[in-house]
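tl;dr need the bound structure. longer version: we got a ligand (calcium ion) that a collaborator sent over and nobodys looked at where it sits. i said id run it. heres the input, straight from their email, havent touched it
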Amino acid sequence: MVKKTVLDKTERAWWKKAVFYQIYPKSFQDTNGDGLGDLQGIIERLDYLETLGVDGIWLSPVFASPQADNGYDISDYCAIDPMFGTMQDMETLIAEAKKRGISIIMDLVLNHSSDEHWWFQEALKSRDNPYHDYYVWRDGKADCPPNDMGSVFGGSAWTYVPHLKQYYFHQFLEKQPDLNWENEAMRKELYKAIRFWVDKGVEGFRLDVIDQIAKEPDHKITANGPRLHAFLQELSREAFMEAGLVTVGETWSANIERAKLFSAEERKELSMVFQFEHICLDQQEGKEKWDILPLSLPKLKECVCRWQQGLHTEGWNSLFMNNHDLPRIVSRWGNDAEYRVESAKMLGTMLHGLQGTPYIYQGEELGMTNIKLDIASYVDPEIQNMYRERIKRGIPEAEIMESIWARGRDNARTPMQWNTERFAGFSTAEPWLPVNANYEAINAENALNDPDSVFWYYQKLIALRKQYAVLQLGDFTLLCPKDEKIFAYVRRWNDQKLCVVCNFTAEEVPFAVPAAFAGAQILLTNYAGKSWVLRPYEAKMLYLEV
Ligand code: GLC
Ligand code: CA
């Protein structure tokens, strides 16, 4: 077993060496038998995360919330939702995590609040209430919204409030009214809330749909509004001043140029962003994520290469293939049947060999898979809205279900699989979302007892990032760009050279290893031996010093 290296968090940009682990609290570990994960559950599992070796936890929202969108609808920015526990539990979590060298990164939703936030309740009272302008309103008549903008989750982006004769704007659910960033008092309230958590010892933030805060609905602008970077610079100056805080923005709209604006150090906006170009490659162009296309490996390689080279020395990448909004990667780009373990390790190798900060989503380290439920069992409002909408459009039900099984967000949200007990050790009661039926085979206890498990492989991947400067700093060269089966690349930094080779298929594929690496040391591989006919989903990480 590898001993965890504890990073020095007083070091500037410590997060460039770090690996983060995302927890979706509702599905991680329940301790009081209500079928819902909680903060005490996370505290109980900190030793597991320390063994894995991660440096920080990105905690999906635990703030007070009516849970219309699983906490991405906050009704009090400075309170913990009772469903997850108390403020005391949160303080214990921060302290216990810190003891293990693990930072807590909270998930801030600053684009919108819940309609149950008292600001919005005040805003509803009258047009001249001081809180009215905290939200985005337009005058109008019933059934005649200001324009045809749609909400991301279906339906109109405008909801009418008859007694005000006004519509409010919501890019997401009706229960998630957009905050008006033009209002300075509102911005100051948000900064105060952020400082509240920094004072409690939180060491960073993930910023939900942060590229959408500077919306201008009159011009149908949602992402990248003209004032976006001014707002981010103010936010960073006023709220993130603390040296060493890490910030990662969720930016679906980022291309390389925009990512540089967000993450270039001298601009003092964010540490890094999540960009989604790679993860949207297997959907039909101009359509929705439900409109599936098989992945083209050359396209993925071109995309990764462009980002690696584009941000090298000019910004900072985050590295991920999974989160609470995405299906399980082993079911998506790997093989969740015969080669589940091999392909989970291969995908991890491809990602963790790159430059940037890796994020592991809970259960990814076990190779957890997608789930197939009937429509009534899904909880996610996005799935339910899309199902209704597509049925109305006359799309065959079987086709809709295929899309949901492949892409629905609940794939990632099923309870964490800890052991072979009833409900997979997640809870003693019926969980809020069904446990995947494969939990008897795929669970943390089995993984910890098996030296060849995905878990121990991920532990090595995490440890390697700290041992080899080339992983943190090296440049990137893509090998065999047109090859449809193999993803291979070289990283270089000073005298260190690294070569990563991944077979993305269930076939045997010969690979012409670059001459320099023929006798190289194998840092990590998911198969024994050193054959250059790659076996199904084989992955190798080779290392040289010259
Ligand atoms: C982000 C979150 C997602 C949420 C949405 C609205 O995309 O990751 O879960 O539904 O924002 O807050
Ligand atoms: Ca609970």
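gonna send this back to them w/ a short note. Residues 184-199 form the longest helix (16 residues).
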